[in-house]
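chain below, 158 aa
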Amino acid sequence: MDYPILVDGFENQDIRYIPTGWFSTARLLVNGEPPVATENGLRWVLTRDDGETVLAHFHSKSIFSNLQTLEVDGKGYRPEGLESIKWYQYLWCSFPIVLIFVGGAIGGLIGAIAMFLNIQIFYRDGIQPAIKYVLTLGISIATIVLYIVFGVIISLLF
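prediction:
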């Protein structure tokens, strides 16, 4: 699913944001085509309605969030219709990170991976909210089971 971005100076152009996928980065489309990238590939060259070229890039507030802002000439533009997840959803998704208190570094690593997966599920379109909670609960429970199994295997080996 893509989302329109309304950018000053580009009123006659269709700018769309395609969010990060499981194995893909966020993409930008201008009039249905990917824009021209700079040499390093981190910025795009966009042409305003008046013919002036400007540089643009995505900016994210968190590595866990796939909600990115398009920055054009230092001004940020958010995709229309794409919402950030709420604080209580972050709290729900962060439950597996408590393994850091019982499991140290290994528990923290497993918990952080599960938290990342949970947050990505909440950012997915096309999944009903109740299903998102069920899926993330399943991931959280599986994380605890995985940690226990991992701990038993380590204790048997050493």
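The beta strands are 3-4, 15-18, 27-30, 36-37, 44-47, 53-60, 68-72, 75-77. Residues 3-77 form one domain.
thats it, cya
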